[in-house]
Write a structure and sequence with these properties.
By secondary structure, this protein is of the alpha/beta class. The chain has one domain: Aldolase class I (TIM Barrel). It contains eight helices and eight strands, in the order βαβαβαβαββαβαβαα. An eight-stranded parallel beta sheet has the order 1-8-7-6-5-4-3-2. Helix 5 links the parallel strand 6 (135-139) and strand 7 (173-177). Helix 6 (182-190) packs parallel to helix 8. The protein is globular, with a radius of gyration of 16 Å. The protein starts with 5 loop residues before the first strand and ends in a 6-residue tail after the last helix.
C-alpha cells in the first residue's frame, strides 16, 4: 500500500527575512515537513543555505526537515546536515562518485537516505541501490532555481519508478520537486508520487492554509490519502 501523502513546502521560496515565522506559518497551515534546498553554485548555478540555517530551523520545530543536496561532492556535507538535525538527506546521483557509499554514510548517521534524479537522469542508475534507499526524488524541473514550470515527462518517470518500488516491495517514498501546484498535484499523485515539494505555489499565495487544503482535496480526489 502506498504511504500517506506528505506536503513539503520548500523554503527556497520563503521570505528569508522572516524565515522562522514562515516555517511556523506553513506548518500551522497543515504542511507535513519542511523541504530544505541546498545549492552550492557549483553543481547548480545558485547559492542558498547551509547547515547553520538547517540547525536553526530544526531547533525551532518538531516536524521533519527534508534536506535536498544540490551540491558536489555530495558526501562532504552529509555529516554536517545530519548533525544539524535533518531527518532526510537526498543527493543527486551524478554528484557522488560512489552513490552507494554515500547512501550508506547517510544511513549510518541515523538519517533516511534519498537519491535525486534530474529530468535527463536514466532510471538504470537505481538498479543496484534500491535496497539502500528510503526516498527517490524525481526532479520535474532542472535543479537550481525555484518557480520553474513542471516538465510533463516527469509523469511517465514517476509511473515507472512507482512500478519499480511496488514490484520490488520496497518501503521507499517517491517524492517530486518542481512546478507542483494545485492544478497538477492530482495528476502527479496518480502517476505514483506520495511526497510533494511545493515552493512558490505555497509561499507565493496570500493564504498558505488555503493552498495546502486545496492540494489535499486534489490528492483525495486522485488517489485518496492512505495510511502508512
Amino acid at each position: 500500500m502506498r504511504s500517506t501523502s506528505l506536503i513539503a513546502p520548500s523554503i527556497l521560496s520563503a521570505d528569508f527575512c522572516r524565515l522562522g515565522e514562515e516555517v511556523d506559518s506553513v506548518l500551522a497551515a497543515g504542511a507535513d515537513m519542511i523541504h530544505f534546498d541546498v545549492m552550492d553554485n557549483h553543481y547548480v548555478p545558485n547559492l542558498t543555505v547551509g547547515p547553520q540555517i538547517c540547525r536553526a530551523v530544526t531547533s525551532r520545530i518538531s516536524a521533519p526537515v527534508d534536506v535536498h543536496l544540490m551540491t558536489e561532492p555530495a558526501e562532504s556535507l552529509v555529516p554536517a546536515f545530519a548533525e544539524a538535525g535533518a531527518a532526510w538527506i537526498s543527493f543527486h546521483f551524478e554528484a557522488s562518485r560512489h552513490p552507494d557509499r554515500t547512501l550508506q554514510l547517510i544511513r549510518s548517521l541515523g538519517v533516511k537516505a534519498g537519491i535525486a534524479l534530474n529530468p535527463a537522469t536514466p532510471l538504470g542508475c537505481l538498479e543496484h541501490i534500491m535496497d539502500r534507499l528510503d526516498m527517490i526524488l524525481i526532479m520535474s524541473v532542472n535543479p537550481g532555481f525555484g518557480g520553474q514550470q513542471f516538465i510533463p515527462e516527469a509523469l511517465n518517470k514517476l509511473t515507472r519508478v512507482r512500478r519499480m518500488i511496488d514490484e520490488g516491495g520496497y518501503p521507499i517514498r517517491l517524492e517530486v520537486d518542481g512546478g507542483v501546484k494545485i492544478q497538477n498535484i492530482g495528476a502527479i499523485a496518480a502517476a505514483g508520487a506520495d511526497t510533494f515539494v511545493a515552493g512558490s505555489a505555497i509561499f507565493g499565495a496570500p493564504s498558505y492554509g488555503e493552498v495546502i487544503s486545496a492540494m489535499r482535496s486534489e490528492l483525495e480526489k486522485s488517489v485518496g490519502c492512505p495510511e502508512n
